Amino acid sequence: MVRRMGFVIAALLVVCLGAGCAREPERLIEKKLAVILDDDLATVVAELPKESVADTTFYEIRVYKQYKEGKYGRLATVDFYFLKNVKVKMVRKYRYYMPARKWERYFNEYEFIHE
Fold first, then answer.
1. Exposed/middle/buried for 79, CB within 10 Å: 0-12, 13-18, 19+?
2. Pairing state of beta strands 53-66 and 88-97?
3. Selecting from 3.10.450, 2.40.50, 2.60.120, 1.10.3470, what CATH number does the domain 25-112 have?
4. DSSP label at residue 113
5. How far apart are CA 67 and CA 65, in angstroms?
6. Cα(first)–Cα(last) distance of the chain, in Å?
7. How far, in Å, are 25, 87, 94, 99, 110 from residue 80 at the CA level?
8. How many DSSP H helices and E strands does the chain contain?
9. Mean pLDDT over residues 97-106, rounded?
């Protein structure tokens, strides 16, 4: 009887974890975003002629919001700076799709940099 109860509890725990009952740590969500941002910047820079790339390339997370309800738990707006002698930045928006536990890109545009 005790072994059967242990099996039931273990099975419920597996089902609960698989269904997303356990919260994902915030630092893991942020780490997943950093991986995508690093990759996006590297990909964009790799596609440009070397003479067009700035000496220092970087991105800046301008907005980071958390939501308690809905299928998207986080939103990030990120500015990418990588062009030499051009006052333009790339703006991308990302959202964290809670059921799949992954970030999605859903917006991309270029904006002039105003000083």
1. middle
2. unpaired
3. 3.10.450
4. P
5. 7
6. 73
7. 26, 12, 13, 28, 9
8. 2, 4
9. 96
102 is written with which tokens?
């992954």
What are the φ/ψ torsions at residue 88 (nearest 5 degrees)? -135, 145
| Domain assignments of the chain as residue spans, ordered by start | 25-112
pLDDT of residue 23: 84
Query: Which residues, in sequence order, are CB contacts of 29 under 8 Å at separation 6+?
Result: 73, 74, 96
Q: How far is CA 114 from CA 6, 88, 89, in A?
A: 63, 9, 10
pLDDT by residue (tens digit) across 21-78? 468 999 999 999 999 999 999 999 999 999 999 999 999 999 999 999 999 999 999 9
Q: What is residue 109's predicted lDDT score, i.e. its pLDDT?
A: 97
Statement: the pTM of the whole predicted model exceeds 0.85: no
